[in-house]
């Protein structure tokens, strides 16, 4: 599964045994389900019957109180808190900040370059411009406001970070570096011996935990002194949430765990979308031309230093359809696990308590009854005239756990594409790049592009 395309493995399974079959995965009895009916069943199933199940590495690195580990009332409470900062009304305030960061990124890493390594085959930041790297910058500033909160020297002394001093030049880079270290362990074998990848990730988690805890204290003090507004950033919003009796809605540990989880959930997903979008645009000149036309019109309506606004982003309808089509063809998250807590019946089969369900939600993306000519890249799949059937496009999940970061991902993607197509043209250094899953989709030889500067519209 690691080396081959998971898509093919799953399709093969469906072809041989149909949309429901059983198997043993590492000794655990497992039911495999896929299809529109399976999506509907699982997204609407009570979490007292089917519970979320993540690899133990995620629990240990994100912490016991991260949203993925919670169910029922606890899940609703923490989810409500996260949604309260990720909802459109709040994100509107962050569009300008995101725009500034994207421009800065292009100026530093793209302008004047002949070639750019967008993504390397290990999905690490070595020798490559790494969209992930700067995406997390955006998340950090927009959501956590780290930029001003911590003094750089005290960082290094207090958190014993001298080992990354040479690589990371400022406090945000230091935090990003730590997150990258943590991320390497998320899908590694969770063996905690000195010098294992997982051990280094656990150490990074401890440092991040201390930093976020300090931020919590700092921001709580600022709130008490009334020198910050309640929705200034993620941590302040989470701190300001109250229960009916005015006690804090989330404990400090819950805030730490969910700040870490949000960084992980929003990190690879959006950067994968952008990398694949860059690849698909390079291979589809007519789609590229329509995206360019839409983005040039928006650029022309602005004075060169104007930042993009929320209204500008609402006009990028075609570009978002192209991004959605990219997610249909290459969903960052292909399948999920659920744990069976109570016996239940599905399609005439009794699934016993204690089993697990592996469910390939995004296989509906390649069902030709739902998306005609599914292997063709066609943003027309998302035209308003032909609405997408329910439970068929599920790149952002569905039901009670549908991705709360949808709007945030949309903003990051549209702003980036706006500056990318207005400022550069590009072609792939290695045409016909292929990808495998690890379990995220990853270009086998990385993604390198040859860049030409356009005369700037804005
Ligand atoms: C293209 C970008 C993204 C994709 C494709 C994506 C996809 C998903 C999917 C499929 C799920 C549901 C998992 C399940 O059913 O178990 C999910 C959950 C989640 N996502 Fe995203 N995501 C993206 C970006 C983001 C961003 C930017 C953030 C944060 C800023 C975020 C935060 C979360 C959180 C917190 C959850 C857990 C929700 C819960 O358990 O209630 N995601 N995401």
UniProtKB/TrEMBL annotation:
Single GO biological process annotation from the record = sterol metabolic process
| GO molecular function terms noted in the UniProt entry | heme binding; iron ion binding; monooxygenase activity; oxidoreductase activity, acting on paired donors, with incorporation or reduction of molecular oxygen
Coiled-coil spans in chain:
none
Q: How does it sit in the membrane?
A: Single-pass membrane protein
Spell out the CDD domains in the cross-references.
CYP90-like
Q: Which domain of life is it from?
A: Eukaryota
What UniProt keywords apply to this chain's record, in alphabetical order? Heme, Iron, Membrane, Metal-binding, Monooxygenase, Oxidoreductase, Transmembrane, Transmembrane helix
Name the record gives this protein: Cytochrome P450
């Amino acid at each position: 599964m690691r080396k081959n395309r998971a898509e093919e493995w799953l399709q093969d399974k469906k072809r041989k045994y149909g949309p429901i079959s059983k198997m043993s995965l590492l000794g655990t009895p497992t039911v495999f389900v896929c299809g529109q009916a399976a999506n509907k069943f699982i997204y609407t199933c009570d979490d007292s019957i089917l519970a979320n199940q993540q690899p133990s590495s995620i629990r240990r690195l994100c912490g016991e109180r991260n949203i993925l580990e919670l169910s029922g009332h606890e899940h609703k409470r923490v989810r409500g808190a996260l949604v309260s900062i990720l909802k459109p009304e709040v994100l509107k305030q962050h569009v300008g900040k995101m725009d500034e960061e994207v421009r800065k990124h292009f100026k530093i890493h793209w302008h004047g370059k002949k070639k750019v390594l967008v993504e390397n085959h290990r999905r690490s930041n070595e020798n490559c411009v790494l969209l992930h790297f700067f995406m997390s910058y955006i998340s950090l500033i927009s959501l956590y406001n780290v930029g001003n909160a911590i003094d750089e020297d005290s960082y290094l002394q207090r958190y014993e970070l001298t080992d990354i001093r040479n690589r990371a030049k400022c406090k945000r880079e230091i935090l990003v570096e730590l997150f990258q270290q943590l991320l390497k362990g998320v899908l590694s074998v969770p063996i905690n011996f000195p010098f294992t990848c997982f051990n280094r990730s656990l150490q990074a988690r401890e440092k991040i935990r201390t930093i976020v805890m300090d931020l919590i204290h700092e921001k709580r003090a600022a709130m008490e002194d009334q020198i910050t507004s309640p929705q200034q950033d993620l941590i302040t919003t989470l701190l300001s949430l109250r229960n009916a009796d005015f006690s804090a809605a989330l404990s400090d540990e819950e805030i730490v765990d969910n700040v870490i989880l949000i960084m992980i959930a929003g990190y690879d997903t959006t950067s994968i979308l952008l990398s694949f979008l860059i690849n698909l645009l390079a291979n589809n000149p007519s789609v590229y031309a329509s995206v360019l036309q839409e983005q040039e019109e928006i650029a022309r309506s602005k004075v060169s230093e104007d930042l993009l606004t929320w209204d500008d982003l609402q006009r990028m309808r075609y570009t978002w359809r192209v991004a959605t089509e990219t997610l249909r063809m290459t969903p960052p998250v292909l399948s999920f696990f659920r744990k069976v807590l109570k016996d239940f019946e599905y399609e005439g089969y009794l699934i016993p308590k204690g089993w697990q369900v592996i469910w390939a939600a995004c296989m509906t993306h390649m069902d030709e009854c739902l998306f005609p000519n599914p292997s063709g890249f066609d943003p027309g799949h998302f035209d308003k005239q032909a609405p997408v059937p329910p439970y068929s496009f599920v790149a952002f999940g569905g039901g009670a756990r549908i991705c709360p970061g949808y709007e945030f991902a949309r903003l990051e993607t549209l702003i980036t594409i706006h500056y990318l197509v207005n400022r550069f043209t590009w072609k792939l250094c290695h045409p016909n790049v292929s990808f495998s899953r690890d379990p995220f989709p990853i270009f086998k030889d990385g993604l390198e592009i040859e860049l030409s500067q356009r005369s700037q519209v804005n």
